[in-house]
Write a structure and sequence with these properties.
It contains ten helices and 17 strands. The protein has helices at residues 41-47, 97-100, 150-153, 159-169, 185-196, 211-216, 228-233, 279-284, 296-309, 323-331; strands at residues 2-7, 16-21, 29-39, 64-71, 83-86, 89-91, 112-113, 133-137, 142-143, 177-181, 200-205, 221-224, 238-243, 258-266, 287-290, 315-318, 338-342. The longest helix is centred in the C-terminal third of the chain and has 14 residues, at 296-309. It starts with a strand and ends in a 7-residue tail after the last strand. The chain binds NADP nicotinamide-adenine-dinucleotide phosphate (NAP) and zinc ion. NADP nicotinamide-adenine-dinucleotide phosphate is lined by residues 40-42, 45, 158-159, 162, 182-187, 205-206, 210, 244-247, 249, 267-269, 291-293, 330, 333, 335. Its cofactor is Zn(2+).
């Protein structure tokens, strides 16, 4: 099927309109018209080849809300007209121990990412949600709770699940003290979800600028990481810290904030960190861990929870032609707190 999208053609080229062919519908595929697509900092990293391995052209976008247009003959759970979602993965081996456990993101054979990943059957590079149409096998398509505002639901598919998964893995709930480093797309979802799970939540931000938003986000405390005396006072406080910082950074200021047996979970930077002292780890049996998105069943669980509690990201809706400006603003940290592209702005001509 012929379709259109926006693509980066090299690491320093702005995104521009791109016509391409989506694969023909397979027996277990769901095809959809894309309604909204969130803009994740990972899109920017991949468009710029920050992680290496970008294969151009790249059509980014892995926070996708769509309306089903067609289903393959073996599709059981979706029908034309359904409102559905796709996140960061579109396939996995479906038979390893991790896939069996619902951890498709940790598939032993590697998951197939929504964009910039070879398709498991035809080897073609996958293209993401900054496009008119998407196709994915049924197992990687999610149901969107009916009450959610569709224009704001897309970021749940990456920012939501990437923070929900470690919060669940570390049993966050009433009585737990959670810190969130970096109040951006992922960070503000971590705050909303941890508050929704009943934890005491502290925003850990570089400056005072976002303090006024803390109340609206229902965070209990706000800690400025550049304020040394405030950081010292907060020592030994947290059971879990979710670290969403997107660049190489120093963990040393943050580790003493953890209580004995506390964990700092990295979800932001994927790559080298600044040299870290083992002293706070050894002296408090503290841990540094990492976490990648979340499994499909867990993503559905998160969507359902957000439906029940009406948890939604704070979004700024943009047109697709404004994507390059949005990237510049994302780089400057000038977004409250997620850009979402209204895909009706992508015209055929
Ligand atoms: P974002 O909206 O740009 O937010 C990042 C926040 O980090 C900023 O708002 C800022 O918060 C803080 N920050 C930025 N630069 C910093 C620096 N140099 N030092 C310290 N703090 C800094 O980004 P996002 O979309 O939330 O994505 C965050 C990261 O998660 C990206 O690297 C992305 O690739 C990654 N990611 C990982 C996964 C996964 O599965 N693990 C999934 C999705 C995304 P303050 O102004 O409050 O300090
Ligand atoms: Zn993402």
């Amino acid at each position: 099927m012929k379709t259109i999208g926006y693509a980066a053609t090299s690491c320093d080229a702005p995104l521009k309109p791109f016509s391409f062919e989506r694969r023909a519908l397979r027996h277990n595929d769901v095809a959809m018209e894309v309604l909204y697509c969130g803009v994740c900092h990972s899109d920017l990293h991949q468009a710029r080849n920050d992680w290496g391995g970008s294969v151009y052209p790249i059509v980014p976008g892995h926070e996708i809300i769509g309306r089903v247009t067609e289903t393959g003959p073996d599709v059981k759970h979706f029908k034309q007209g359904d409102i559905v979602a796709i996140g960061c993965m579109v396939d996995s081996c479906q038979h390893c121990d991790q896939c069996d456990k619902g951890n498709e993101q940790y598939c032993r054979e590697g998951n197939t990412q929504t964009y910039n990943s070879p398709d498991r059957i035809d080897g073609q590079n996958t293209y993401g949600g900054y496009s008119k149409h998407m196709i994915a096998r049924e197992e990687f398509v999610l149901h969107v709770p009916k009450n959610l505002d569709l224009s704001r639901a897309a970021p749940l598919l990456c920012a939501g699940i990437t923070t929900y998964s470690p919060l669940r893995a570390w049993n966050v709930g009433p009585g737990k003290k959670v810190g969130v480093i970096g109040l951006g797309g992922l960070g503000h979802m971590a705050v909303k979800l941890a508050v929704g799970m009943g934890a005491e939540v502290t925003i850990i931000s570089r400056s005072d600028k976002k303090r006024t938003d803390a109340e609206e986000l229902k965070a209990h405390k706000y800690l400025v990481s550049s304020d040394e005396s405030a950081m010292q006072k907060a020592a030994n406080h947290f059971d879990v810290i979710i670290d969403t910082v997107p660049y190489k950074h120093d963990l040393d200021p943050y580790l003493p904030l953890l209580d004995v047996d506390g964990s700092l979970v990295i979800v932001g930077q994927i790559g080298p960190l600044a040299e870290t002292s083992s002293v706070p780890l050894v002296m408090g049996r503290r841990r540094v861990a990492g976490s990648l998105i979340g499994g499909i069943a867990e993503t559905q669980e998160m969507l359902n929870l957000c439906g029940e509690k009406n948890i939604l990201p704070d979004c700024e809706i943009i047109k697709i032609e404004d994507i390059n400006e949005a990237y510049e603003r994302l780089e400057r940290g000038d977004v409250h707190y997620r850009f979402v592209i209204d895909m009706s702005s992508l015209k055929n001509d």
